[in-house]
Amino acid sequence: MSCDPVEPGSAKEIRGEPIPGATPPLSAIPAQGRMTGSDIAPSYSEVECAAVYRAIRERRNMRHFRPDPLDPELLGRLLEAAVEAPSVGYMQPWRFIRVLDLALRHAIHAMVEREQEATAQACGERAQEVRRLKLQGILECGELLAVALMDGR
User: Fold this and answer.
1) Which residues of the chain fall short of a pLDDT of 70?
2) Residue 142 gets which letter from DSSP?
3) What is the dotted CATH code of the domain comprising 9-149?
4) Global pTM value
């Protein structure tokens, strides 16, 4: 997989042409040919299941970030994993936006600070807890990946 998915959408996606290797939308599969969840449920060993639960249990929030951009190969693997996330009807409505420009990250940081304060005010007694959430990572990281919906969704 290349890093192309970082762009808002390919020309093929915009024109609605099928993308090679993509799973067709459910509406394109005749009802008699559709599989149910039990037909396609993969079988995982106890060791594989334990590894997933361990990864979930041991995950940590990041508070310090590297100032250099991601290696393109690593970025490709991360995006490949991200686009495999489940979505209703395999619609995959998200788009990934890669922000390298520091001035733009400053503008995003300011916007997020405003939204954080609005959220704090709406949270009543938990306002201070919301205000303590750290947003500095937006400025400290080498690049920012934003996940967004396409216009009109």
Assistant:
1) 1-41, 153
2) S
3) 3.40.109.10
4) 0.60
